[in-house]
Amino acid sequence: MIAILKQIVLSSCVLLLAGCAAQRYQPAPLIPAKTASGLESRNLADPGLRAYEEKNAGHAIASWPQKTWSLGELSLAAFYFRPTLDAARAHVAEAEAAVTTAGARPNPTLSVAPGVPSPYLMNVDFSIPIDGRETATPCADCSEPGTSCSI
Question: How many CB atoms lie within 10 A of CB 69?
């Protein structure tokens, strides 16, 4: 009995450690020269800036780069090149992915537990959620701002 218990504990530890070893750390070194060259390469002749200006100004721009800039156009250029907005865009993409995930169907589950009269009997439970609303995660309707949840 004790030998079986030791074997179960040992195999559980091995499986847990194998799960931790499945993900490897990917170092991403910071290269100051690359970051500096990326910042220095920004200029007002950027074609991406032209598309951004046209999209947000609501009209086509005749000549590019412009010879004179208005305050509104320079403000849009500052928004385009601002690095904190890149982080905000990443957060928006993350929130959109969370909405997509919330709308996904839940996976079926399989659980194995020791039996009630004897620990040598095993209970196997396989469940397929039909609606998925019994879980604690919010649905896609609840995650949209300004909407009411139907749960």
Answer: 14
